[in-house]
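Supplementary Data S3. Sequence and structure tokens for construct A.
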Amino acid sequence: MDNKLTYSEIISLAGNLKMVSGQIEDLLSVLKEQDYARIGDGGDVWTGDAALMARQTFDELVTRFPEFINSINDYADYLVNVVASR
């Protein structure tokens, strides 16, 4: 079985990675603007100690998303650069 990727397949995968990182960014934005505001103090969906804890955990995670997105984009760029140098 041949598991080798062609250069065009690698370029396509890099493009898919960029697309997915954009989707992650968009989803995070929607969550923060719409759903997230409804949880915790003053929220109309979920309140109380568990909601507050969930919101605090989410706050901590949200600060790391730019790092995750940059890592995905950097890897996609790396793949393109490797193929371009061949």
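Construct B, processed identically:
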Amino acid sequence: MSSIGKVIVVRAEKGRITASSIEEGDLYSLVKKYLMQAAQEWDPSTSDFVALKDNKDVELESVDLAALREVEKYGVRWRRERDYLRVTFPTYTISFDNLMVSEKEYVENKVYLIAPFISEEVKEQLELEAAEITAPPQEPGGLREIG
């Protein structure tokens, strides 16, 4: 399936958004493009390389239905609930600089989050998520250095 649409691409490193854009193109082709780009930066001697597809649910008070219809081909679904719209859409996370600290703790230093464009509000939510994913771990009393 190849068709042009709008795609959100967010890159975060150590708790900061280093790039965020809305690109024109096919979602799947752009995911592969950023997989290849991340692979060029990946150090296999120190980090895992992980690509995950997940579905995200968001509640939106207003959204352009034409924009939603444009991304239905990617499995985007929505339904009206009371005074908002519940939207489910795929997200892709590419982690290429990370560290397993313990069985329960995994530190992501660099990630891409990629999703079909739903709205500016969703883009902002993905930016927050990317920053949180890559934020340095904290312990009571401040930051703790790892590695």
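Residues 5-58+91-136 form one domain. The helical segments are 27-41, 65-70, 120-134.
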